[in-house]
Design a protein that fits this description.
heterodimer; A: 132 residues; alpha/beta; Hypothetical Protein Ychn, Chain: A; 5 helices; globular; B: 135 residues; 5-stranded parallel sheet; two-stranded antiparallel ribbon; 20% helix
Chain lengths: 132, 135
């Protein structure tokens, strides 16, 4: 089955991203495909390359970054541009456009629009939402 | 894109205490460009999103309630409101914004977009959806 996942909450504050990760991992282990993971609301913070958790804790950003499809290919991880920008989450291109120094989107994620969420809903067999 | 699915947006939170309501509306407006079968549901505190006479002057936030009036122009005209959620909050149908759309199949007659339904009816409508996005 083709799954897409929407994550509406940030890491550590909320379990949504952890649960979504466990769900995605289990689905992949069962031979399913993850069409897309879409990060919305505070969920955009799951893509921060500046995340430094204590050494004895899980690194949520890194877990997502390293998760692969069952054939080893990358998983499409999309961060909503509007939600990201208003929360200070920028990739190099958006930082340049807004004349801001530095950028913090982990390279395994990409910034794009809400249309990617709707497309995920259309193209996937199931869209599963994690959040409050 | 030729696939048409039934998308429902579940609005469960009030407008200004958290960001969910306005960011849900942003999804709905973007989604309108995809020619899908769209409906909205307002349940729990989500019913406050479409109450009449909202005024944000005192809180320094944008009053986005007017945007709901534009949904009809985007062919989004199925807005379901939970009767039980209204009752629990001391609200009734008269407290809800009179949102309308123009029915192109009926000589562009103006018709109400909002329908108050019981939770049982709403759960039936939800079960008919392909995609439910919960905010």
């Amino acid at each position: 089955m083709k799954f897409s996942i929407q994550i509406n909450e940030g890491p550590y504050q909320h379990q949504a991203s952890d649960t979504a990760y466990q769900f995605a991992k289990a689905a992949i282990e069962k031979g399913h495909e993850i069409f897309r993971v879409f990060f919305y609301h505070d969920g955009v913070n799951n893509a921060s390359n500046f995340t430094v958790p204590p050494q004895d804790d899980r690194n949520v950003v890194k877990l997502w970054a390293e998760l692969k499809q069952s054939d080893g290919s990358d998983i499409d991880k999309v961060v909503c541009v509007a939600a990201a920008l208003r929360r200070g989450m920028l990739d190099e291109s958006e930082a340049g456009k807004n004349s801001i120094e530095g950028h913090n989107i982990h390279p395994s994620f990409r910034i794009s629009g809400l249309g990617q969420l709707i497309e995920a809903g259309i193209q996937s067999d199931r869209l599963v939402v994690f959040g409050d | 894109m030729s696939i048409t699915k039934k998308f429902m947006y579940l609005n469960r939170k009030s407008s200004y205490g958290t960001v969910y309501a306005i960011e849900s509306l942003e999804v709905v407006l973007i989604a309108a460009a995809f020619d899908q079968d769209v409906s909205l549901a307002f349940i729990d505190d989500g019913v406050f999103q479409i109450v009449n006479g909202q005024n944000t002057d005192g809180i320094g936030m944008k009053n986005f309630s007017k945007t709901f009036h534009a949904l009809g122009d985007y062919d989004i005209n199925k807005l379901y409101v939970s009767k039980e959620s209204l009752d629990e909050r001391g609200l009734n149908e008269d407290d809800i914004m009179p949102l309308v759309y123009e029915d192109e199949d009926d000589d562009w007659a103006e018709k109400p977009s909002v329908k108050v339904v019981s939770n049982a009816e709403l759960s039936l409508i939800m079960s008919e959806q392909d995609v439910c996005l919960s905010f």
